[in-house]
Amino acid sequence: MQKRFLVLEDGHIFAGEAFGANSETVGEIVFNTGMSGYQETITDQSYNGQIITFTYPLIGNAGINRDDYESINPTTKAIVVKNLARKTGNWRAQMSLDEFLQRKNIPGISGIDTRMLTKIIREAGTMKACLVNEVKEDTLSNLQKTVLPINQVEQVATPRAYPAPGTGRNVVVIDFGLKHSILRELSGRDCNLTIMPPKTTAAEILELAPDGIMLSNGPGEPKDVPEALEMIRGVEGKIPMFGICLGHQLFALANGADTFKMKYGHRGFNHPVREIATGRIDFTSQNHG
Fold first, then answer.
1. In angstroms, rounded to a whole number, what is the distance separating the alpha carbons of residues 97 and 223?
2. So what's the pLDDT on residue 285?
3. How confident is the model at residue 1 (pLDDT cuts 50, 70, 90)?
4. What is the mean pLDDT of residues 41-60?
5. What is the tens place of the pLDDT at every residue in 16-30?
6. Helix, strand, or coil here: 94?
7. What is the per-residue pLDDT for 100?
8. Where are the domains of the chain?
């Protein structure tokens, strides 16, 4: 197997085996504690520009199927795993994780002590990292000088509006890097959807007279999307509004709250959340920095 190296901004170097695309990359390294759902994670545009470390020790055993995409062309930078399953045993699998990453030009590294890596991230905080096939004298200095891109929403959101027809309530979905499962859930409730770009104005939304507005998830710093705040202020109080992830943070910013970057974020599945008013508990996926 070809060797590959994960280099952290603080100087830590991990050696492992290459899989996925034969390329080198730089991104923000984060960890996900989910025990399942790696396909949804990798294809979630909220991970735009990030190197994902999976804490669950075996990844890839269910392969990749046609039903669990959150986007067709993921913009995740790289994948870090302890053990990569070389064979898949799921009846829905169309291809292996290795083959999928090759097709999408996403490099991976296996054989890493992901427990140690996660402890480093928890202690030092989220940082830049790179995947390289060879560690050179200037690898670390070049990494430390790298400036990661901002305005990530523009990289993943739709540039123009499009419909997802239904027969029920009219819902406008503002796409900041939405997950396909949001559309699936709304469509499953017979909603008539209009998906609109992040720079959509309040006037353009009100023209459609929707029954509700969904502010989607998305990547990066919510303060990089200031135009959305004006739109939110222009429609709230007139039309019911619901926010997920980045959309929820933008709703908060538009109403005078503040956001700040967490030390290492919160990413995983099956997190219980209790609704204080009723005591009801829902198990949720979480992905925010």
1. 34
2. 85
3. confident
4. 96
5. 999 999 999 999 999
6. coil
7. 98
8. 3-145, 153-258
Q: H helices within the chain, ranges in order?
A: 38-42, 97-103, 114-124, 139-145, 153-156, 180-187, 202-207, 226-235, 246-254
Helices (runs of H) and strands (runs of E) counted in the chain: 9, 16
User: What CATH number matches the domain at 153-258, 3.40.50.880, 3.30.450.40, 3.40.50.300, 3.90.105.10?
Assistant: 3.40.50.880
Partners of residue 3 on adjacent β-strands: 17
Strands 13-20 and 3-8, by their bridges, are antiparallel
User: What fold, for 3-145?
Assistant: Glucose Oxidase; domain 1 (3.50.30)
Q: In this predicted model, which residue has the larger pLDDT, 177 or 270?
A: 177
Phi and psi torsions of 14, nearest 5° = -115, 130
Please give the pLDDT value at position 271. Answer: 87
Q: What is the pLDDT of residue 269?
A: 85
Write down the pTM of the prediction: 0.93
| Tokens, residue 7 | 């280099």
- Residue 238: name the closest of 265, 205, 261, 262 by CA: 205
In the block, which residue shows the tokens 């070809």?
2
Measured over the CA atoms of residue 37, residue 43, residue 46 and residue 51, the dihedral's sign is: positive
Q: Are 85 and 58 in contact (CB under 8 A)?
A: yes
CA distance 60 to 38: 8
Q: What is the pLDDT of residues 131-162, one digit of tens each?
A: 999 999 999 999 999 999 988 999 999 999 99
Q: Is 67 exposed, middle or buried (0-12, 13-18, 19+ CB in 10 A)?
A: exposed
